[in-house]
Amino acid sequence: MLSNRCFNCFSKCQIKSPLKRWLCNTWNITSLDIPGNNKSNNYTRLRQRRNYSFIHDTSYVSYGSDIQTDVALFEMFKNKDTGLLSIGNFLSAVKGTGLRKNDPRLQNMMDNLKRVSRRNPDGSAVDTEKLTLEQFRSIVQSSVGLLSYAFRNQFIIPEFQEFSKNIEEIYWKCKENTNGKVASYIPQLKRMSPDYWGVSIVTIDGQRFSLGDVNIPFTIQSCSKPLSYGIALDLLGADVVHTYVGQEPSGRNFNELILDHNKKPHNPMINAGAIIICSLLKTMYSPEMSSAEKFDFTMNFFERLAGNEDLGFNNAVFLSERECADRNYALGFYMKEHKCFPQHTKFGECMDFYFQCCSLEANCDLVSVMAATLANGGICPISEEKVLKPESVRDVLSLMHSCGMYDYSGQFAFKVGLPAKSGVSGAMLVVVPNVMGMCLYSPPLDALGNSCRGVQFCEELVKKFNFHRYDNLKHASNKTDPRKHKFETKGLNIVNLLFSAASGDLTSLRRHKLSGMDLTLADYDGRTALHLAASEGHLDCVEFLLTHCRVPYDVCDRWGRTPLDEAKIHGHKVIAEMIELWQEKNAKEPED
Ligand code: GLN
Q1: 164 within 8 A of 394, measured Cβ to Cβ
Q2: What is d(CA 322, CA 332) in angstroms, rounded to the nearest whole number?
């Protein structure tokens, strides 16, 4: 075993040339430099000629086929010169994938990082900290699966920053829209600023993007309807729920005094249906619970949908709602007359429960997590908790799609093609199934009671992206599919790989390796990444491809040229020597 010393002089020596550094860093020289080895070879000649020194670098860890993700990540982000990883750079790369520092799935890692910086005597901020491989490994241990997923571009929206930029453009466009009027039937809503405009997005992988007034609290109002309906489906089953409420759009106002031909409310997204859903939750599931207990229970369910974030309750809104509820009471009595309620319903308590659900307070960020839980089949992407059954969520989305936007539902389904629910506070909960959830918040409402900016945002969104339910994903016309990796097809994969090699983009090559791509792929002319890196003179890429990826060094392109020929033809001597040495080493040690 060699010490960390120069092999020739057994003292510390300067490593200057890149080839020398490469040899020193990567080569197990014990197997090469056998004294008296009469197979005097290039390597020995080279050593004699340049008086190379070799250091066995113990920190080197090979990227084999059983690649260790934490090591690969470290390699991806470490500073080439210092061999250390800057936490600041690493965290901003994490952010670029759409993950947030406060994501509960990263909490352990963030706690570990804080511990490291606390140990730091100068108390410098965590972002300026530099880590060794060992430190990095112990810090990211618990989150390595998620991080590897993120950096392998395997999240549902791989190019998240680009996607966010597009969202931002739409956001600013809609900001200019000053149409609509803020709801004024109760003073608490009337007071809300018409200028508030917030957009929050959470993907099913927990990638997040928020813009504008995303922390302003608002009461969720009718956005509670799909959630209560989902809970009722989960607890009581669809058969029970739909003996009391239908699945048809009413074609009338959300608070219209009207029932369907079976004398049931048309659907759970309008007031009549939602009041019935509240009565089912109160009287048919654990009826022994007091009103207070049932409120806590339901609020807790809502919070779980929001990744265990704390919801608020606006008592002033609740009291106002109750006071200005002639229409809702009228609806209730009308339904009572037609025996719409389950047995043992306590009418007053049930109405209060409905007003309480409308008066729950949240913000854009929080509601977007709820929407993402619906997009993700009932599993909250942030807490990873299975909150609702996928069948319940499917039913919720179906009715949001056909009935969620009041009397605009038909047009919305036609133009936007996404399940959504709006509320009088100006909030809109929108779901792109299997992709992401959104909350749009802007108080001014159109004549039908939907947020003007919210509706415009959705229309602009589906103009740009193929999110409409009936957009064809394969033959999409002029729309972008952000779900697709830019280089998803094999052909594009190769182009991208070769481009990275030709331009000397080592980080991108590492990314390809990390994503499990076959780095030996060749283009139509039989040119491989190694050919390109060798001919363009990118030593570090050649090194990476040979030693880490172990791509074959002697492949011929269609003109019969190997990567070694390329290096020689283009005058990259050091690279040519490197390939020759590698060739020799591998010829000698085929088991390597
Ligand atoms: N609190 C409102 C009501 O019951 C909720 C309706 C809505 O948001 N559209 O009338």
Answers
A1: no
A2: 13
CA 222/CA 323 separation, integer angstroms: 17
Q: How confident is the model at residue 485 (pLDDT cuts 50, 70, 90)?
A: low
Output the CA 133–ligand 1 centroid distance in Å. Answer: 56
Tokens coding 96: 């670029």
Q: Which of 254, 313, 428 is the pocket-test mutation for ligand 1 (most atoms within 8 Å of CB)?
A: 254
Residue in the block written with tokens 């993950």? 99
Q: For 165-464, CATH number?
A: 3.40.710.10
**pLDDT for position 207:** 98
Model confidence pLDDT, tens digit, residues 346-388: 999 999 999 999 999 999 999 999 999 999 999 999 999 999 9
CB distance 355 to 329 below 8 Å: no
Segment 426-451 shows an average pLDDT of 97
Decide: 253 in ligand 1 pocket, CB within 6 A.
no
In angstroms, the CA 441 to CA 424 distance is 11
Span 486-588: which CATH code?
1.25.40.20
- Tell me how many degrees the CA angle 373-375-376 measures, rounded to the nearest 5: 65
Residue 526: left (phi > 0), alpha (psi -120 to 50), or beta?
left
Is 408 assigned a catalytic role? no
Q: Which DSSP state fits 587?
A: H
Please give the C-alpha separations between residue 256 and each of 250, 251, 354, 397, in angstroms, as whole numbers: 9, 10, 16, 23
- For residue 363 and ligand 1, the question of a CB distance below 6 A is answered with no
Whether 222 sits among the annotated catalytic residues: the reply is yes
Mean pLDDT of the chain: 86
| Catalytic annotation present for 92 | no
Q: Where are the domains of the chain?
A: 5-151, 165-464, 486-588
CA distance linking residue 119 with residue 132, whole number of Å: 15
Strand 427-432 vs strand 198-203: parallel, antiparallel, or unpaired? unpaired
In tens, the pLDDT along 319-349 reads 999 999 999 999 999 999 999 999 999 999 9
Compute the radius of gyration of the chain from its Cα atoms.
31
pLDDT at 314 over 70: yes
- Does this chain's domain 5-151 share its CATH topology with 165-464? no
226 vs 124 pLDDT, higher one: 226
| 557-583: pLDDT as tens digits | 999 999 999 999 999 999 999 999 999
CATH of domain 5-151: 1.10.238.210
Note the pTM of the prediction, 2 decimals: 0.76
Which of 256, 257, 424, when mutated, tests ligand 1's pocket best, judged by the most ligand atoms within 8 Å of its CB?
A: 424
Say how far residue 578 (Cα) sits from the centre of its chain: 41
For range 103-114, the mean pLDDT: 93
Both tokens of 303, joined, read: 């919070």
pLDDT tens for 227-239 read 999 999 999 999 9
Residue 123: which pLDDT band, with cuts at 50, 70 and 90? low
354 counts as catalytic = yes
Side chain identity, residue 474: K
Residues 6+ apart with CB under 8 A from 444: 178, 179, 180, 181, 182, 194, 426, 451, 452, 453
Cα distances (Å, whole numbers) of residue 168 to 172, 378, 461: 6, 28, 11
